Prior knowledge:
The chain is 15% helix and 25% strand. It has two helices and eight strands; from the N terminus they run αββαββββββ. The protein has an eight-stranded mixed sheet, with no helix packed on it. The two termini are 22 Å apart.
Amino acid sequence: MRGISLFLNQLAEHCPDIRSVWVIGARTEDEVLGTCSPFGWDLLAFADLETLQQLRAATDLHRSDVRLRVVTDGNRFEPAWGDAGLSGSLSGWSWKRVSEREAFYAEDGLAALRPGRKAVRLTEKTLSAPLGVLQGRPAAAPAVRFS
């Protein structure tokens, strides 16, 4: 996860109200999350509308190798920067959290008809540390649960 740890720490500093960050897409299939991927990082953050606006204004966080979508109301998400076509909803993706660290989804909403894609939680906000990022490691209990 070294390839994205610094970015996650910067997110925590700029936007402490982010509740959790998940990696979606091809990176979830990497054996080591720090390995190279041809398109970079595809992330999904759970926060609120104010945090989304903060992220859009924080141009120092905007990276061409990171696609960051922000879930603002528990369902709908929008990109923090870049292609507005990345907007959508968790219900439209048939998002299903199956454990503390894993969820499955289908970007076309057809998860019931075929196996979904995997999402992996990278960080989750704890009561004591923003985003629960402690030296690049995921949060430990007690954590606030979000899906």
